[in-house]
Please model this.
Amino acid sequence: MLPGTMLRHRERLGDAVLRCLETRMHIQGRSPRQLHVFDDPNRDERGWVLTVTHLDVLPLAELELGLRHGHAKLSPVTGIPGLPFGHDAIIAWAVDVVREKYSQEPDPWDLLGSRFTVTQLRELHDAVLGQPHKKDTFRRRMEPHLDALEQRATPPGSNGLGRPARIYRKRSEGDRVGSIMAQV
Model:
């Protein structure tokens, strides 16, 4: 979504972002991070407008109120036709950042919650990347970033046959530093 707003007199940029999210999308309690400054003087035929973009990735459920009130429309990030004011470039930049972050970490925006299976994690990464990952390669790449829990999950609609999937959580930064030091 690309809600936008103008800064009010003496308003801080971060406050304007939060105000825009609340008034336009009914979203509170988020911490969007500055993404990039788009400053091409030819982006807007009305004049030179600086656009300071922010990025946050959140579960669909948090958008439902704004969508229900008609304040937003969901569209796939691929194939968006020529949006005005350079918004195509803004979306492409954001998609690249999100994909890069997901290529390095299990679930940087915690879309799956605190506990998940590797299959759920891979399906999330497949959706973010826009194409499937190889199961074994993905598991090997992610396991150093995960802690296996004693719990197991039976997939919804399962007939109970087969071994239930192991549940994982993301390894905390302190755990990763400790494991790296232990390996040295």
User: Anything to note?
Assistant: Residues 1-104 form a domain with the Nucleoside Triphosphate Pyrophosphohydrolase fold (CATH 3.90.79.10). The beta strands are 33-38, 51-55, 146-153, 165-170.
